[in-house]
Amino acid sequence: MDKLTKILIKCRLTNLVSNQDMLKIIKKSIKSANLELDTLKIIEESRSKKEFDQFLPLFRSLGTKNIQAINYLSDEYPEGLREIYNPPALLFYQGRIELLKTKTIAIVGARSASNYGISCVDGLVPNLIDRYTIVSGLANGIDGRSQRCAVANGGNTIAVIGTGLNRFYPRNNQGLQRQIANYGLVLSEYPPDSFANPWHFPQRNRIIAGISQKLIVVEAKNHSGALITAGLALENNREIYAIPGRVDSELSDGCNQLIFDGAIPLLNVEILK
């Protein structure tokens, strides 16, 4: 592990350093003769004396053993993720980091998925895994179903989670998360022991959008997290697909609106070839 990654991990483990400050550290690292000293200067300048006095002993005491991570400058870091607004300075991971360099397609949707949505995922994923790594957020409903289906059919999948890698949210996907860590890739910008907080999930969604070349919305209510992810993907010029649904179904409102606004209606898997 290179020196920059070690320093960023220690910063993140303190829970006192923002992503923006870590991006400043990365920029400084390119021409730094003493990166640790320059890091401390950046943190000191952005914090009160009390906060810096709290940070310093933590930073010096923390280690990086048994932690795997990549930073913004790492070769493994996807180019598409570098292009988003506020890209994660550091990503913790478990599994096959090389999957970030494969062709990727995100599948997102409602947590309270209908039988129709589940059926769509079950028919779609087996026909994609020979060409794409499936990306999702390991949530209940469409996200988890798409990743479970990828694993069951021997495909590759990347789970982007909103907790530390040693936490499981939702709890019922614990077994699936462990499977993906062993055979696929689990990513998080949150350090070990981080619990799920509401603001983590919109932040997680930007990573899903950033590492995916294409995105499919299977079912979504209006103003849902899946639509937030689709909006972020659209901002970054990704191809957006939506599965049309019944006009009297609240779970199809988001997909039908996406199609009205210009998303590609996913009528069959051949469209994705």
Q: Which assembly state applies to the chains in this document? A: single chain
Q: What is the typical, i.e. mean, pLDDT?
A: 95
Low-confidence stretches: none
Helix content percent band: 40-55%
- Counting helices, strands and paired strands, the structural category is alpha/beta
What summary fits the major beta sheet? 9 strands, mixed
Q: Could you characterize what this model shows?
A:
- The longest helix has 13 residues, at 49-61.
- The chain has helices spanning 3-13, 19-29, 35-45, 49-61, 79-82, 115-124, 142-152, 174-183, 200-211, 225-235, 253-260; strands at residues 69-71, 90-95, 104-108, 133-136, 157-160, 185-188, 214-217, 239-242, 264-265.
- A nine-stranded mixed beta sheet has the order 1-2-6-5-4-3-7-8-9, sandwiched between helices.
- With 273 residues, it is of the alpha/beta class.
- It has eleven helices and nine strands.
- It is elongated and about 60 Å long.
Please specify the SSE layout and strand pairing.
Elements: H1 3-13, H2 19-29, H3 35-45, H4 49-61, E1 69-71, H5 79-82, E2 90-95, E3 104-108, H6 115-124, E4 133-136, H7 142-152, E5 157-160, H8 174-183, E6 185-188, H9 200-211, E7 214-217, H10 225-235, E8 239-242, H11 253-260, E9 264-265
Parallel strand pairs: 3-4, 3-7, 4-5, 5-6, 7-8, 8-9
Antiparallel strand pairs: 1-2, 2-6
Helix pairs in contact: 1-2, 2-3, 6-7, 7-8, 9-10
